[in-house]
Amino acid sequence: MQIADDQFRAALVQAGMSEQVANQLVELVQSLNSGKTHPLQPRTPQNTTPTSYETFVAEVLAPAYQQQAAA
Is the pTM of this model over 0.85? Predict the structure, then answer.
């Protein structure tokens, strides 16, 4: 799914991020999408886990964020 940068920024701010952090994340995504930023090491079986990004977000990142936000 793709959304416009302004929509992404607005969603981040609505989720509780500051404008500055939201702007930096938009800039990071733009850099990744344009190819200006790339990993220093290629993906290999030795440095890649079977966990998908979606699984990591759902099982680790979101619960940690929600726990911190509730504190």
Answer: no
